[in-house]
Amino acid sequence: MKKTEICIDREFRTGEVDERIFGSFIEHLGRAVYGGIYQPGSPLADEEGFRRDTLAFIREIGVPLVRYPGGNFVSAYHWEDGVGPAHLRPKRLDLAWSVIETNQFGLNEFMNWAKKAGTSPMMAVNLGTRGAEEAKDLIEYCNVPGGSYYSDLRRSHGYEKPHDIKLWCLGNEMDGPWQTGHKTADEYGRLAQETGRIMKMVDPEIELVACGSSNMGMATFGSWEETVLDHCYDEVDYLSLHTYYGNGENNTADFLASSVNMDAFISSVVSICDAVRAKRRAKKKIHLSFDEWNVWYHSKEQDKKIPRWSQAPHQLEDIYNLEDALLVGSMLITLLRHADRVKIACLAQLVNVIAPIMTDGQGAWAQTIFYPYMHASRMGRGTVLQTIVKTPVYESRYGDAPYVDAVVTENKREGTLTLFTVNKNLEEDMELSMDLRQYEGYHVTKHIILTHDDLKAVNTRERPQEVAPREGGRSQVSDGYLKGILPARSWNVIRMEKWK
Question: Which of 211, 283, 387, 397 is the most exposed place for a label (fewest CB within 10 A)?
């Protein structure tokens, strides 16, 4: 049996976990909104039309932040279409996804839903077909108490108090040629600078996210980040990263190694941010918002068959299997290992559209990726310890990939240590050892395992627990060492507490 040794030191800390790293994303896309979180008239919905079943799953995860309304959708969106009396709202062509948007769900409905979901908004402004003026109007509508045109318009819509939204995205993926209103780095950087400056004139307390590269493979990667920050460094607080991975070639080993690429992506963007900081002799440090990440490839062929200009079609509805959950677990570990710089992250998306939660007319169920996401959100708060993983590696398209990914978080308030780990060896269990002598008196309170004999196993309406976690993993603390077994192809959460 192969062996993995994990090394930690209580004084060597990566950084505090910003809870927003466990955020998610709702875009006007497919059935994410209509039929996902919002379905008026359904027996599954409450008096406001919000689906109770998906709300329950979202509360179970403890999603602290939801990005809205896009995504590619936002780059041609008129936010005014989605406020005021529903029967007066226009239907519009959504050029991003070639569908009809009814605008029956908009900004105020989203804010009502967010309160019920126990989450906070991350609002995006349209910098594709619109600009600084419309962004100013939107933040005035949302954050000014009253006495001006747009704040009073909000009040006339039944919202006397401001929404007080404090986190804003300056557009979406503006480096992408697929984006409505795509711009060069100079064009976008200048627009982001001026838009950010004006928005902070309205509300100086907001935080702003500038668009970084849509993925590391973009031809403009690196130069885009540098040019954009050269323009708007003083106005923005975060730079975004987006990435998705797929296994279209059915090479599981390479697919599971994708977290190596994600780690390199984060490290590269941190280096660029710090280079611009040094060049400007700036005191402020730019942090990262990894506000789109997930597995996405299963649905791409079926999406080609969707008729143009349909409404809320079954779009981007990836059905996730065990290997997808393993990679999502490794991606969460990667985000945590960079907790000193990654302060915001959004699993894209939340319901139905490349999502951990699926619905139909009978109810909702959890996909395989739901579980590592929920475990990390619920048990990953606190401080990330620098986690050294000594493990065998294998060759992959991204170079050497470790068989075991792992990270340890300490929550002093709760008195817990939590080890999140993935064993990517598809055939063999892994023997685990971790020196805990600095944490005398700690013992294992739970060892959760997510695995299955079939890497392609999925959860469905008929079999919603086909791939589900179980407790009772083989680990314990003995003579100051955590010893355990990580089953082949498994996600593991080992929770430790001090004896009372």
Answer: 283
